[in-house]
């Protein structure tokens, strides 16, 4: 089996990452009752003999679980979040050799993160990445987690992305990027996001954008359901996508509910690579199936069900509801409406007690209401993993390469322009060594052309595109 | 005579496991057959064909398991061992850590060449264990990356290593409504390459088999295991021992050779489809009785209407009067090049297969008489008192093939996903060559 390394950068990246590790441990403990270090665990964790104290311990191939260490590199340019992790219940999962911190932060300034810290920490970051990679016998993927709005995650995070491409050109790069909501408290977030977008467009294999506003909406929806639960529709508390119940962290911090959603996204995305199933979907199949053109690699995700009702019987109708919900606006992790935009491709990653007939039935049922691009009318990728998430009997992660990401990008561009026209805060950026006005114009034109590429595809939506005339064969 | 099976990728391995399960159960049941001499002969012949006995008396499949990821092989071997009847050889598998990612080019250009030697060695060991080799059966899907890409590459290698052996490729075609987005590209690349090196290509369409599970087997929640059981039943009924025209009282010693000789008489036509009657839930079997005419009449109509399942048959379609040109043929009529009918069960000698001899069913330019053959066995197969399986080289795969090529061509016109293939060394010209090859095949079958 293959291994993956998580690189979490900045406050958001580290907070989300932390939730991921907690829920990943919970999931494996749930499946792996015997406490044996198995292949599934090895994808994200090392099993380490800590008695051999040469700094980071030595790997143990199989047998009993001794001490699990996350395959992770934690980077932040302030200490707060990482220190909290090191004092919290997850402290044993990380080693000091996996961390890089500084004290002063990036001041929500992409240039400080990308240019200043990027060059100051370059060697150290590469060294940590190489070390993590050495512990893997078949490294398949890097999962980079950071926000787009701040300075460290967006600036230094996108710098790490470039380093990964230079150092490990053959290892797949997934980025989970948290996009700021319109009322974000970081004033310069539009600058930071647009500057980071250019890097993501050019250097990532796949980006999973997540919008904070959508996370908030989902959290509120679940909390509302939990409070107004009518008899017969009582939510199983530990089953919601926002719950951390059963994990090692006992206290709940402000962003935790939101971040648990993102953690679940990553768990479901990687489940078929970790556990067995009758139709496996490995990580390298995601880009192969969902990225028809290299730059158009932004995938809109939705998770269903958001919760399971305490009532144990699962009639077929409820299973079908799970598929229906995956295409509705209020289950998407960015604010977007895939049904009223154009699909380039769509993956359904199913977990648990679901068979191929359930998949086929639902694809046939939903297909007529979903517009697909002319050359990919049957653009479905399916996976069946037999191990369901904790607290559920089944679940679905839908990944869509869909032109519905465009409004989010246009919105971001508008907010950028509002600042940029007034040259607001620009001097904070141009102070930083290596940062020039050209960086802004380049990033802006990169974003504009990305939007244009989606528009051109969108324009074919209601056209009747005839089949390409077939080759002529001399008979 | 023995057959060595090579199972590739998730699909190939999962199908293979069900195939050996059907065969080992059927072979086991044969021991209880009366008169026991017949049962014993069947048992011995089948076992020699598919299994070998270790010194400890355990039965192992004459099979090699290949995948680029470990999970499926681990599970397949464990499931087989759990049967208690048979297992896979402990050393008969080859796997790597990371799959081919649904990328034919990755399988064909990277994994295939890299592991050619190790895989070749495993196959050679299995071949050497056979007193005589009847041929090599390869099981794989066309939609993924390992079965299709590595499978194609390995078939080429086997052709070179065993130039005089028969190579039969069993292919699982994907659901038409989509399950791997690049499935049509992978299929086109696989089929066009296999057409140059395989002796015959036996196709199962997931859509068809799925419908059999739903409508004939009455399964509500259909799993891949259910689908694979149907494929295994059809394959098993073709490959288990039978008397052929050449072997009267003995079981055929050259099943693969006779299959090819009967069905693939022209290199331009190598696509075989298969259908069986009856197919029903095992719980209903005990309450059903069949007559040979009652089985063969619908089977013949299924053939001429290209219906792969005993339901929704169009009884209006009739064979045209002999001597009419292709242009006058009724639409909906499926012209055959060759057919092989395999009959198994009670009173098999009384079964009258004349209906399949009608020259009107066949394309006019082939010599009469050579186009149809029958194999028979008195033993019930897989617990069906009577059963009939038809392997057909006809126009019946034309429609799904044309659909597949058309979809791939549309996608290729926009060059979508092509960069994923060129990355591993497949050029746009390679695509074009594959399209040309298959358009030729389509045209040939169209003009039968
Ligand atoms: N009938 C049947 N089809 C299957 C089964 N497993 C997979 N498939 C089909 O096979 C195709 C996918 O190919 P796989 O066999 O999973 O791929 P692979 O050969 O392992 O190649 P990679 O995973 O891409 O390296 C799809 O069309 C699936 O429907 C199975 O057990 N039975
Ligand atoms: N979903 C989520 N968003 C966060 C979290 N922490 C910060 N953010 C968002 O991230 C952006 C600020 O970036 P931050 O990560 O704090 O800056 P950095 O530490 O410099 O990378 C804002 O859009 C915040 O709303 C978190 O834990 N979860
Ligand atoms: Mg901050
Ligand atoms: Mg596979």
Structural notes for this entry:
The complex is a heterodimer of chains A (475) and B (448). Chain A contains 14 helices and 13 strands. By secondary structure, chain A is α/β, with parallel strands linked by helices. Chain A has a six-stranded parallel beta sheet, with helices on both faces. A four-stranded mixed beta sheet of chain A has the order 10-13-11-12, with helices on both faces. Chain A has a three-stranded antiparallel beta sheet with strand order 3-2-4, with no helix packed on it. In chain A, helix 4 packs across helix 5 and helix 6 packs across helix 12 (406-421). The radius of gyration of chain A is 22 Å and the shape is globular. Chain A starts with a strand and ends in a 17-residue tail after the last helix. By secondary structure, chain B is an alpha/beta fold. Chain B is 44% helix and 17% strand. Chain B has 14 helices and twelve strands. In chain B, strand 6 (133-141), helix 5 (146-161) and strand 7 (167-173) form a beta-alpha-beta unit. In chain B, helix 1 (9-30) runs antiparallel to helix 2. The radius of gyration of chain B is 21 Å and the shape is globular. Chains A and B meet through helix 9, helix 11 and strand 12 of A and helix 3, helix 7, helix 8, helix 12 and helix 14 of B. The structure holds guanosine-5'-triphosphate, guanosine-5'-diphosphate and magnesium ion (2 copies). The site of one magnesium ion (MG) has 6 residues of chain B, from helix 1.
């Amino acid at each position: 089996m293959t291994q993956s390394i998580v690189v979490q950068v900045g406050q958001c990246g580290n907070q989300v990452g932390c939730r991921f590790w907690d829920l990943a441990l919970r999931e494996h403990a749930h499946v792996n009752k015997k406490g044996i270090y198995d292949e599934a665990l090895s994808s994200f964790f090392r099993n380490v003999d800590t008695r051999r104290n040469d700094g980071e311990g030595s790997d143990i191939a199989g047998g009993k679980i001794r001490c699990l260490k996350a395959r992770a590199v934690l980077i932040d340019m302030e200490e707060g979040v990482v220190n909290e992790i090191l004092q919290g219940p997850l402290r044993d999962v990380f080693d000091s050799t996996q961390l890089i911190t500084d004290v002063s932060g990036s001041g929500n300034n992409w240039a400080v993160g990308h240019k200043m810290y990027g060059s100051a920490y370059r060697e150290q970051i590469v060294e940590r990445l190489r070390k993590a990679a050495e512990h893997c016998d078949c490294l398949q993927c890097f999962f980079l987690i950071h926000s787009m709005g701040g300075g460290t995650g967006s600036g230094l995070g996108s710098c790490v992305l470039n380093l990964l491409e230079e150092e490990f050109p053959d290892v797949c790069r997934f980025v989970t990027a948290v996009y700021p909501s319109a009322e974000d408290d970081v004033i310069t977030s539009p600058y930071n996001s647009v500057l980071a977008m250019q890097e993501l467009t050019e250097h990532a294999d796949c980006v999973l954008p997540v919008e904070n506003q959508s996370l908030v909406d989902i959290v509120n929806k679940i909390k509302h359901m939990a409070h107004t639960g009518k008899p017969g529709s009582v939510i199983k508390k530990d089953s919601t996508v926002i719950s951390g119940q059963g994990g090692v962290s006992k206290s709940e911090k402000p962003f935790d509910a939101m971040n648990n959603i993102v953690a679940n996204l990553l768990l479901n995305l990687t489940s078929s690579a970790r556990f067995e199933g009758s139709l496996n979907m490995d990580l390298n199949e995601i880009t192969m199936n969902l990225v028809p053109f290299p730059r158009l690699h932004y995938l809109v995700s939705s998770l269903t069900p958001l919760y399971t009702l305490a009532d144990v019987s699962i009639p077929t109708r409820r299973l079908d509801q799970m598929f229906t919900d995956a295409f509705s606006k209020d289950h998407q992790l960015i604010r977007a409406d895939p049904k009223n935009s154009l699909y380039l491709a769509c993956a359904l990653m199913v977990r648990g007690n679901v068979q191929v007939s359930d998949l086929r039935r639902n694809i046939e049922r939903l297909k007529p209401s979903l517009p697909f691009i002319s050359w990919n009318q049957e653009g479905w990728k399916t996976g069946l993993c037999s191990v369901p998430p904790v607290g559920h009997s089944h679940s679905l992660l839908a990944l869509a390469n869909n032109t519905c990401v465009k409004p989010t990008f246009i919105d971001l561009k508008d907010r950028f322009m509002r600042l940029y026209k007034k040259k607001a805060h620009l001097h904070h950026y141009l102070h930083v060594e290596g940062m020039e006005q050209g960086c802004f114009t380049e990033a802006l034109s990169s974003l504009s052309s990305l939007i244009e590429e989606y528009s051109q595809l969108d324009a074919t939506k209601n056209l009747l595109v005839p089949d390409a005339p077939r080759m002529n064969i001399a008979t | 005579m023995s057959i060595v099976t090579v199972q590739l990728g998730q699909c190939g391995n999962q199908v293979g496991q069900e195939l050996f399960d059907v065969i080992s159960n059927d072979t086991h049941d044969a021991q209880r057959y009366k008169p026991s001499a017949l049962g014993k002969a069947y048992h011995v012949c089948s076992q020699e064909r598919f299994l070998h006995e270790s010194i400890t008396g355990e039965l192992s499949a004459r099979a090699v398991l290949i995948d680029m990821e470990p999970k499926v092989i681990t599970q397949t071997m464990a499931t087989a061992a759990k049967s208690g009847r048979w297992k896979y050889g402990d050393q008969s598998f080859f796997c790597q850590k990371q799959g081919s990612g649904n990328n034919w080019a990755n399988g064909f250009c990277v994994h295939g060449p890299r592991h050619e030697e190790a895989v070749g060695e495993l196959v050679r060991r299995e071949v050497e264990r056979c007193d005589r080799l009847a041929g090599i059966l390869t099981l794989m899907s066309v939609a993924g990356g390992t079965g299709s890409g590595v499978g194609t590459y390995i078939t080429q290698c086997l052709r070179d290593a065993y130039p005089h052996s028969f190579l039969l490729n069993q292919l699982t075609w994907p659901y038409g409504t989509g399950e791997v987005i690049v499935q049509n590209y992978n299929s086109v690349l696989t089929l066009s390459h296999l057409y140059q090196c395989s002796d015959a290509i036996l196709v199962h369409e997931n859509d068809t088999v799925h419908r059999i599970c739903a409508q004939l087997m009455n399964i509500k929640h259909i799993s891949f295991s259910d689908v694979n059981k149907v494929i295994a039943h059809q394959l098993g009924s073709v490959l288990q021992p039978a008397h052929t025209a050449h072997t009267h009282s003995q079981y055929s010693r050259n099943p693969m050779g006779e299959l090819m000789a009967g069905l693939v008489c022209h290199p331009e036509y190598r696509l075989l489809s298969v259908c069986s009657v009856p197919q029903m839930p095992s719980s209903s079997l005990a309450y059903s009785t069949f007559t040979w005419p009652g089985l063969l009449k619908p089977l013949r109509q299924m053939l001429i209407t290209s219906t792969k399942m005993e339901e929704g048959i169009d009884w209006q379609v009739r064979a045209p009067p002999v001597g009419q040109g292709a242009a006058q043929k009724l639409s909906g009529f499926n012209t055959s090049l060759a057919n092989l009918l395999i009959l198994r069960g009670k009173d098999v000698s009384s079964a009258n297969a004349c209906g399949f001899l009608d020259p009107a069913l066949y394309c006019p330019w082939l010599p009469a008489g050579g186009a149809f053959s029958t194999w028979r066995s008195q033993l019930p197969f897989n617990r069906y008192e009577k059963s009939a399986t038809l392997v057909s080289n006809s126009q019946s795969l034309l429609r799904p093939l044309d659909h597949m090529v058309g979809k791939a061509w549309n996608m290729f016109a926009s060059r979508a996903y092509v960069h994923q293939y060129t990355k591993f060394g497949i050029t746009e010209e390679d695509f074009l060559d594959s399209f040309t090859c298959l358009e030729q095949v389509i045209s040939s079958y169209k003009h039968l």
